[in-house]
Amino acid sequence: MTAPTPAGKKERRHVDGVLLLDKPVGITSNAALQRAKRAFRADKAGHTGTLDPLASGLLPICFGEATKFSQGLTDAVKAYRAHIRLGIVTETGDAEGRVVATRAVSCGPEELEQAMAAFRGDIFQIPHRFSALKRGGRALYDYARAGESVDIAPRPIRIDELVIEEWQSPVATVHVRCSKGTYVRSLAESIGERLGCGAHVAALRRLSVGRLHLDHAVTLEALEATNETERDALLLPITVLVDGLDRIELEAAAAARFMHGLAIRMQSGRVLEPDLPVAVFAEDSSNRAPKRFLGLGRRVDQDGAQLLAPARLLATREQPAAPCDP
Predict the structure, then answer these.
(1) CATH number of the structural domain spanning residue 274
(2) Domain assignment of residue 325, yes or no
């Protein structure tokens, strides 16, 4: 299906799927998204977590119906390779900012390891003053650039891994695996403060988002050099967005009810967590065709019975034609 466009412009089309893009340094995540969207002539697309212009690496882009199920990637654990330059403090916490302090670096990898140990696990972090986080309808970087101070409350985050990969004083290359909401720039600054010499992020590359990895990503240049058939073959199915969720398969009658917004009684013995979504598929009686993804469901309790209610449905031309009787 295509959407009409003004004369002289390429006709847009409906595209569903997930593209693993290797964003280059020097452009915003939105600029990378728009280039990918134009390459596919897609009518709808969105990315799943911003990378600063200085940063490169994995930027998953969701097209069409995939945008409905992208929240899981936004909330997912992410991994980075960060080059932390000790001894120089910048206004923005990265290499693009104005230098505000320069100090001698007298520490070695042992002292760096001791400093990093304080930031592993569950900690509180103050979001970076030059971040896009909103306060009073304005991004924090707007306040910072205007020289206005604003209170920024610390937020709970989790650092699962913080490991030195290489040490070439005054630069440490570290591997960071962290929760949603972690600012690597703030982490670098905090490490530098603990060492007494200050620090900033000289370079940053995102390696993974949840179960998706940079190894399978394509660059913008490679994407734009393909023809449409080759380009479409790069798309991953929408189901990669729900791979980590509990899964339920429904027989045809139950699937028809579910796709029409009706809650269905759970199979005997099946217990769902009350606050966790589940990925719902339609069974294939032949067991030969791939199971058809229907959407996300959630548990509801009604009159002592546990029901499966639709939470977010996949719009598809192949969904069942009519609901069945309860």
Answers:
(1) 2.30.130.10
(2) no
Q: Is residue 323 one of the residues assigned to a domain?
A: no
Contact criterion met (CB below 8 Å) for 279 and 242:
yes
Are 99 and 169 contained in the same domain? yes
The residue with greater pLDDT, 136 or 1, is 136
Helix/strand/coil (H, E, C) string of 195-228?
HCCCEEEEEEEEEEECCEEHHHCEEHHHHHCCCH
Contact 112, 191 (CB under 8 A): yes
Catalytic pick among 43, 52, 75, 284: 52
Are 211 and 48 a contacting pair, CB within 8 Å? no
* DSSP string of 2-58, one letter each residue: EE---TTSPPEE---EEEEEEEPTTS-HHHHHHHHHHHHTBS-EEESS---TT-EEE
Specify the pTM: 0.88
Are the beta carbons of 191 and 111 closer than 8 angstroms?
A: no
DSSP code at position 102 = E
Residue scoring higher pLDDT (269 or 28): 28
119: DSSP letter: T
On whether the CB atoms of residues 291 and 282 are closer than 8 A, the answer is yes
Q: What is the pLDDT of residue 147?
A: 82
Please confirm, yes or no, whether 22 is among the known catalytic residues. no
Residue with tokens 């269905």: 264
Does the structure show a pLDDT above 50 at 326?
A: no
Mean pLDDT score, 270-290: 79
